[in-house]
Specification:
38% helix; binds 2-deoxy-2-amino glucitol-6-phosphate; alpha/beta; eight-stranded antiparallel β-sheet; Rossmann fold; 22 helices; 643 residues
């Protein structure tokens, strides 16, 4: 049963899979950039040690299975960690060339069968792949009609079989790869080996990064710099539509049409750690800066702009239950819980369904009083392994409730134990403080709320979703604009670096973001931070205010701006310093507050996605100024798998 449920997730959740069943103009199909890792080596040394160490260097990218192919020895693949794979390699599994791969499953269970490398049905061509072959289904059907038998459900195997099909014509491997790639639509970074030409490796790229390392003892292929840094700093970055042919003695770069290219050899400056962080000082900053890409990944294939509709493949099988839902309970811990508070407002505002939100560590002990048939639980979890959230799900299931997950880690326990759900596609989040995943969680809630609106109101209402859908498509650009101002936010943080306490206030859609902002400051800069609904100031918190207790006020120029403005005046009258996150004309805010951070204006219901970003940066820069271990704050773990 559990497998079937997971199968529902894996079968439907990939939005591009939806595109397969409902072809949209190619221009509209943008790709999910998987986070898989590729390494390859050919030269005078034994390839195996480099390949395994190279996979270990890529572990930071996140993955759930791994595999290796070595010339003359064949392939070994394992689900789970690289250490699982390394322990499976027998003595003597050595050769002068090979390829290897770590897979971050975006579809298809993270099993040995789905792990890379994949081969053609003769076992001649071996391939590892990062990306997505969009037209894999039609190619697969055509090859099956020629009698080819497929071993896995993956699009990658289709590419391996297609290359093998051409290779059977006894042409050079690079020619077979070139002919096959001419047929492919999608994104790929691939490394290819063959038993017929063990003295050759092919690398090719379209939309998924790949580089060639030029060493004294051979040549390397890698998804990024981290596996090659300890062997060479001379690299060639392949550009889209380019292919490399490597032998132990030489390399050549060419177009897919096999026209020779003269590419510049570049020198890597980064050390290993910097390469994993793409040059940022901390994973947290890298992940904050990834916001535009993460919002694009979260939205990909899920917005049907033409019809003002939402496509969430992972919920398709439970749409009847969603249509009949009379109550929704949202649960999670920490930032996931605060995302749930935003989700509550979104669902109530857009779909008119009553929602209750409860922290998982409390929900799991409460008595469920709702009728399970028309109540749905939505559990939010980046890691998919948080113990309290998992226990709350289990309690809800005992009560007969349908349980949905909003999860980032594919194949995680919560993804497998909930009945259906939506993956974030935010990529691995390494920093302990949640940043990009939190933005993605709120974005998924906007999609879920719009889907519920569709299911709970006549389609004639579709037009009223149009503006929100249009604004969602603009969120990545809005995030980019905010991230252009990191210096000014760093300067504000520097002015408050010695604060002992801070107060965060907001109303309605900004109320949960006050709590999230306070949590970010607490967990990475260790500053005591309180969060309150702005309307609560007179009921106690204003007693805290003096010149040493700054307030962060979340006040976009929305329907509640004036009310929060009056709070600011009260704080100012008591000597409190204020940092304002606002939109539009700042003249008014500048009258009242020392520091003003502007974010682009969008629909009130989507503003939390934008007002959060400056708070993440503010907390980051305060912690940086305090020289604290930002990625690994004291006492905290990335995933709280114990109660
Ligand atoms: C957020 O910055 C914290 N790291 C923490 O509150 C986290 O959100 C919480 O532990 C829930 O984790 P999950 O999303 O993996 O379930």
């Amino acid at each position: 049963m559990m497998f079937r449920l997971y199968q529902v997730w894996s079968h439907f959740d990939v939005s591009y899979r939806y595109v397969q069943m409902h072809p949209v103009p190619a221009k509209a199909v943008i790709l999910l950039h998987t986070m898989c890792g590729i390494v390859g080596y050919i030269g005078s040394k034994n390839a195996t040690p480099f390949l395994i160490e190279g996979l270990r260097a890529l572990e930071y990218r996140g993955y759930d299975s791994a595999g290796i192919y070595v010339a003359g020895k064949g392939a070994i693949k394992r689900a789970g960690k690289v250490s699982n794979l390394a322990e499976s390699i027998p003595a003597g599994f050595a050769g002068p060339s090979g390829i290897a791969h770590t897979r971050w499953a975006t579809h298809g269970a993270p099993t040995e069968k789905n792990a890379h490398p994949h081969s053609d049905d003769t076992g001649t061509v071996w391939l590892v792949h990062n990306g997505i072959i969009e037209n894999y289904a039609e190619i697969r059907t055509r090859l099956q009609d020629t009698g080819i038998i497929f071993q896995s459900e993956t699009d990658t195997e289709v590419l391996a079989q297609l290359i093998g099909w051409y290779y059977a014509e006894n042409i050079p491997l690079e020619e077979a790869v070139s002919e096959a790639l001419k047929e492919v639509r999608g994104a790929y970074g691939i490394a290819v080996a063959s038993t017929r030409e063990p003295e050759k490796l092919i690398a090719a790229r379209l939309g998924s990064p790949l580089m060639i390392g030029i060493g004294d003892e051979g040549y390397y292929i890698a998804s990024d710099a981290t596996p090659v840094l300890s062997h060479t700093r001379q690299v060639i970055y392949l550009s889209d539509g380019e292919m490399a042919v490597l032998t132990p003695e030489a390399y050549s770069i060419m177009t897919l049409m096999r026209d020779p290219l003269d590419k510049e050899v570049e020198t890597l400056e980064w050390d290993l750690e910097a390469a994993q962080k793409k040059g940022y000082e901390h994973f947290m900053l890298k992940e904050i800066m990834e916001a535009p890409e993460v919002l694009e990944n979260t939205l990909r294939g899920r917005l049907d702009i033409e019809n003002n509709a939402i496509h969430l493949g992972g919920l398709r099988e439970v749409e009847d239950a969603l249509r009949n839902a009379k109550r929704i309970i949202i649960t999670g811990c920490g930032s996931a819980y605060y995302a749930g508070l935003v989700g509550e407002l979104l669902i109530e505002e857009l779909a008119g369904i009553p929602v209750e939100v409860e922290i998982a560590s409390e929900l799991r002990y409460r008595r469920f009083t709702t009728t399970p048939e028309d109540t749905i639980l939505i559990a939010v979890s980046q890691s998919g392994e948080t113990a309290d959230t998992l226990e709350a799900i289990r309690e809800a299931k005992k009560h007969g409730m349908l349980t949905l997950g909003i999860v980032n880690a594919v194949g995680s326990t919560i993804a497998r134990e909930t009945d259906a759900g939506v993956y974030n596609h935010a990529g691995p989040e390494i920093g302990v403080a949640s940043t990009k995943a939190f933005l993605s969680q709120m974005t998924v809630f906007a999609l879920v709320a719009l889907l519920l609106r569709e299911l709970h109101t006549e389609r004639s209402d579709a037009h009223s979703s149009a503006e929100i859908i249009r604004q969602l498509t603009r969120m990545p650009e809005y995030a980019r604009r905010i991230l252009e101002n990191t210096d000014s936010i760093a300067a504000i943080a520097a002015r408050h670096v010695d604060m002992r306490d801070a107060l965060y206030i907001g109303r309605k859609f900004q109320y949960p973001i006050a709590y999230e902002g306070a949590l970010k400051l607490k967990e990475i800069s260790y500053v005591h931070a309180e969060a309150y609904g702005a309307g609560e100031m007179k009921h106690g918190p204003i007693a805290l205010i003096d010149s040493s207790f700054p307030t962060v006020a979340l006040m976009p120029r929305d329907s509640l701006y004036e009310k929060t403005r009056s709070n600011i005046e009260e704080i100012r009258a008591r000597g409190g310093k204020i940092i304002t996150i606002t939109t539009g004309d700042t003249a008014d805010a500048e009258l009242l507050t020392e520091d003003v951070i502007i974010v682009p204006d969008t629909h009130e219901a989507l503003m939390p996605i934008l007002t959060t970003i400056p708070l993440q940066l503010f907390a980051y820069y305060v912690a940086l100024a305090r020289n604290l271990p930002i990625d690994m704050p004291r006492n905290l773990a990335k995933s709280v798998t114990v109660e």
